[in-house]
Design brief:
Helices cover 34% and strands 20% of the residues. The chain is α/β, with parallel strands linked by helices and 338 residues long. The protein folds into two domains: 197 residues, Thiamin diphosphate (ThDP)-binding fold, Pyr/PP domains (Rossmann fold); 122 residues, 3-Layer(aba) Sandwich (Rossmann fold), CATH 3.40.50.920. α1 packs parallel to α7, α3 packs parallel to α4 and α9 crosses α10. The longest helix has 15 residues.
Amino acid sequence: MPVMNMIQAINSALDVKLAQDPDVLVFGEDVGYFGGVFRVTDGLQAKHGLTRCFDAPISEGGIIATAIGMGAYGLRPVPEIQFADYILPAFDQLVSEAARLRYRSNGEFWAPITVRSPYGGGIFGGQTHSQSPEAIFAHITGLKTVIPSTPYDAKGLLIAAIEDDDPVIFLEPKRLYNGPFDGRHDQALKTWMGEPAADVPEGHYTVPLGKAAIVRSGTDVTVLAYGTMVHVAKAGIEDAGVDAELIDLRSIVPLDIDTIVASVAKTGRCVILHEASRFGGFGGELSALVQERCFWALKSPIERVGGWDTPYPHAFEWDYFPGPARLAKALARTMENR
């Protein structure tokens, strides 16, 4: 089984689908000849041709509108938005067209598009290259939102997303492109430390959308995370010294609420971790769902750990990120009620 980092795994997923399905197209800013700013689409144009992997103008609204038209026509486009921060000019197309097309046309048309985009911080990109907007997409009924945390999941989830008939927002954590990581960073180098890659099958396989993974079994407390924060959670749990059950959501829409409820019913405690700003983040929805379904099982208040409630602080990026120490404190608080 080949060893791949997340960049290579996503590239492999696109390669597999381009070879397997003539209706799959990959396009976006700099994704063709150049191979993408993070080299995720490197070599795809040379292998599959100019009509299957090609560059688009700097027009996010135009890219997504074109993809919706392609999908309605019967193709399965995979447009890339160079950074998730840039997706807002296309928000109207995603909300008013892609998410509603199947319902508005009574099933006559749909938009089987997969919008790939790097998201989150870790590259000193400042306020226009580092945001985590997943909660915005999760609020839009008709869109699916997927966030992998490992190379294996990235490939399997992306293939599943491309094969899905609904529009999918596929957010790729930039800090994990060369990971997975152990959730810690070197304060001097400001880099995440860990193993560079993982075993990933070479051919076609899928990881089902809407199915969470239990990364670590435990009995004391349930920790919910996704993307980069899964690895931060591992480190924070180790520092806190608690027997925590760690769940990687993998997709936030659809959400595997059954796995969450079963875990919280067992542990009686819940801590939610995400990189986005805490206020209005997806953790609020998770907290409400857990409270509604597990109220009588809870032994302590639900804890949420997120980024600061400020515009993205370029100069204080590594302080903004929820780290193992911040999670460990939340775990300690929730364990006070035994």
